[in-house]
Amino acid sequence: MTLAGALSAAEAAAPVESLDVVARMLKEHLGAVAVSFLITDFTGSSVVRLGAAGSVGTDEPARRIWLRGTLYDDVIRTQQPAVETDGEGALVRVVAPVTNRGDAIGLLELFLPAAPGAQVMREIGETAHALAYIVIANRSFTDVYQWARRTSPLSLAAEIQHRLLPASLACEAAQFAVAGALEPADHVGGDTFDYVIDRDTVQLSVTDAMGHDVAAALLATLMVSALRRARRAGGSLLEQARQADRALYEHGQHGYVTGQLLRISLLDGGTEFINAGHPWPLRMRDGRVQQIAPEVDMPFGVRIPHGYRVQSLDLRPGDRLVMLTDGMLERNIMNLDLSDLIGRTRALHPREAARTLIAAVIDANRGHLKDDATVICLDWHGTGNAQRDAATGADLTNASQPSQRDKPTA
């Protein structure tokens, strides 16, 4: 029961049966009575148990298991496996996180005849990690994983919206950890978020298309596609903004999109930032939450002459940056102190902090949002953990570190 063995066995199986193969291996090797994989849904608030391939009925909605207050929630939040027993003679339950680079994909659950030792726990942990790669490798070939993440049917607009999001909603690296969360309104409002890690930068965006339903989703598609096209062609942050603005002007049917674009150098921590008519971000530093107030330019697609200014944000190691959409600031949640909540969730991973913020907004609106609620949370650790020479790519982690670039405060 090795990592390589689990990956090899899963690859030899059909995509929809790859998890079953690993489950059978665990049963044979550890004598497990039952093994199952639970996948997190789109909201991160529940999980769905995937059974044997032949028992997955994708013609019906997946059965949701709420996370709040459960052992599953504890394991996802702490990213530590848990062992539970009901006493002598009872089966021992083991739940391990299935996670890749901070993206909580799901859980591995086993029922064993006896309490596992350290070696067995290591094997379970390695297998759970292998499952993350197996899911990532196979989810593009089958709809089963997508079906399991949809605990309620999606509208056409919501389907479009979800396909615009990054494949993984969270990511960790030496210099940062980032995570996003989105809760669609009853009538989808066209929110999106995106991030990408390049060789020397991490780039983030949060956007909000005007209108609702399919019209807003189509505007969001134009926006995200134009940004990705310019970014993948090597365009600067300013060029990305210009191309997105042009795409909306030419094809957006007089619609517009607000947004924020952020690029951070992984070499020296320097930042570039563009705000296109969007709510200001929040930054937590040394226990204090402040609203950052950069210059605000016109939304993308507005039909009057305008340009975009590339600004710098004051971002230091240890900071948490929160970018959001106006659905997080609706009148119904005026009694919700977001700054206070950001402060109280500082010890949580960005993934859990984003989930908590979204959950608070949903609760404040009694489960019915008038506008999409979207948040992306970035923890900046600094460049000292992973320095590389910009020209050669040589690892400079143990070399003398250059000082942070002087940046004006936004």
From TrEMBL:
<feature type="domain" description="PPM-type phosphatase">
    <location>
        <begin position="173"/>
        <end position="380"/>
    </location>
</feature>
<dbReference type="InterPro" id="IPR052016">
    <property type="entry name" value="Bact_Sigma-Reg"/>
</dbReference>
<dbReference type="InterPro" id="IPR036457">
    <property type="entry name" value="PPM-type-like_dom_sf"/>
</dbReference>
<dbReference type="GO" id="GO:0004722">
    <property type="term" value="F:protein serine/threonine phosphatase activity"/>
</dbReference>
<protein>
    <submittedName>
        <fullName>PP2C family protein-serine/threonine phosphatase</fullName>
        <ecNumber>3.1.3.16</ecNumber>
    </submittedName>
</protein>
<feature type="region of interest" description="Disordered">
    <location>
        <begin position="389"/>
        <end position="410"/>
    </location>
</feature>
<keyword id="KW-0378">Hydrolase</keyword>
<dbReference type="Pfam" id="PF07228">
    <property type="entry name" value="SpoIIE"/>
</dbReference>
<dbReference type="InterPro" id="IPR001932">
    <property type="entry name" value="PPM-type_phosphatase-like_dom"/>
</dbReference>
